[in-house]
Amino acid sequence: MSRYDPSAFPPFAVTVDLVVLTVRDHSLCALLVRRGEPPFQGYWALPGGFVRPDEGLAEAASRELAEETGLRAHSAPGHEAVGPATAGAHLEQLATYGHPQRDPRMRVVSVAYLVLAPDLPTPRAGGDASSARWAPVGELLGQGPADGVPLAFDHGLILADGVERARSKIEYSSLATAFCPTEFTVGELRRVYEAVWGVVLDPRNFHRKVTGTPGFLLPSGGTTTRQGGRPAQLFTAGGATVLNPPMLRPES
């Protein structure tokens, strides 16, 4: 170690960026903050910021989420713990982004995290964010590269990757239940799939599939009329993490 010279290597910074998704008004929505400082001042961006020298990546992600929005999340099983949690939230590392020109200030490598939770509250701005809001993913991403809302840095790419991760993972895992309250109906779970995938599903076929998939759902013993009509059976997430058979997306 005595022969190691750190100055022989170019310095760079590390940031965390957060793709925070929830379902609001039957639409998949992403959390955005409006940047209050350069670069990209006034642009909408994903929440995030620089990693401090004394903290881990997931710890930085949790801190940035709380500082900029007032929201909290916990890690998924097998991931690095991030401290106090909101029940039902889910956090996992998404991908790393390191294009040399992605940040005009200096060389910055970003580690992105995906955060999913049900019925998240209206966010509040903080840190270097002047405001924060939930925005429907369909409006942000559009139908092609020239559509959608221009976001700061490469956050449009990061958001698209996070949305696709969520869409693909609810096919073969129980991740869709992370968008639901602790107890939920099959109809509420179906509306999560419809919102995330952007499709309309047949209620009877969906009910048959999810209740017939081993370990996916467990009856809680209760019922609810919160959706109107006849009482509907309540379920909780089962112990399965991988769905067999998977819930495949309808072909567009």
UniProtKB/TrEMBL annotation:
Record family assignment: Belongs to the Nudix hydrolase family.
UniProt keywords, alphabetically: Hydrolase
GO MF annotation terms: hydrolase activity
Top-rank taxon: Bacteria
Name listed for the protein in its UniProt record: DNA hydrolase
InterPro entries, A to Z: Nudix_hydrolase, NUDIX_hydrolase-like_dom_sf, NUDIX_hydrolase_CS, NUDIX_hydrolase_dom, WH-like_DNA-bd_sf, WH_DNA-bd_sf, WHD_NrtR
Nudix hydrolase domain span: 11-159
Pfam short name (any one): NUDIX
